[in-house]
Amino acid sequence: MPVDVLDPDPRVDAVRGCVALRRGPVVHCIEQADLPPGVTLEDVSIDLSASPRIGPAVSSLRVGATILAEAVVRPSEGLPLGTAHPRSSHHDERSGMLPGRIPLRAIPYARWANRASGAMRVWIPLTGQE
């Protein structure tokens, strides 16, 4: 089964500019547990210039397949809500994180919170929409 990228209903403000990932009838989510140290889930956006693809199984979750995609990290630590993200590659002294690209793994929604506590997201912001 291929990976489907789902757009939300445009009348729902909370998820405008986001997408969800689905494979067959199963909706997937991203978790804090799958991100590199120092990266916060809220600072991650998905880059669809490369199509999401089927990834390897995760035996600890009893998941036969995952979804892999590319993501962009734009650290926002210390910025007030509503502040535009800087669009440079300069090092962010507040978080120690360099803005850039990271691999993103999505797991079936029904399996989240089985490894560690942390944030989860089904509707993932699109790069360039923040």
Q: Can you tell me about this structure?
A:
This protein has 130 residues and is an all-beta fold. Helix content is 0%, strand content 34%. It is built from no helices and 9 strands. The protein has strands spanning 3-6, 18-23, 26-31, 44-47, 53-55, 66-73, 100-108, 120-121, 124-125. Strands 1, 2, 3, 4, 5, 6, 7, 8 and 9 form a 9-stranded antiparallel sheet that branches. Strand 2 and strand 3 form a beta hairpin. The radius of gyration is 15 Å and the shape is globular. The termini are far apart. Residues 85-97 have low confidence and may be disordered.
- What integer value in Å does the Rg equal? 15 Å
Question: What is the overall number of helices?
Answer: 0
Largest sheet: 9 strands, antiparallel
Q: What is the N-to-C succession of helices and strands?
A: EEEEEEEEE
Record keyword descriptors for this entry:
single chain; 130 residues; mainly beta
Task: Please describe the topology of this protein.
Blueprint: E1 3-6, E2 18-23, E3 26-31, E4 44-47, E5 53-55, E6 66-73, E7 100-108, E8 120-121, E9 124-125
Antiparallel strand pairs: 1-2, 2-3, 2-9, 3-7, 3-8, 4-6, 5-6, 6-7
What is this entry, summarized?
0% of the residues lie in helices and 34% in strands.
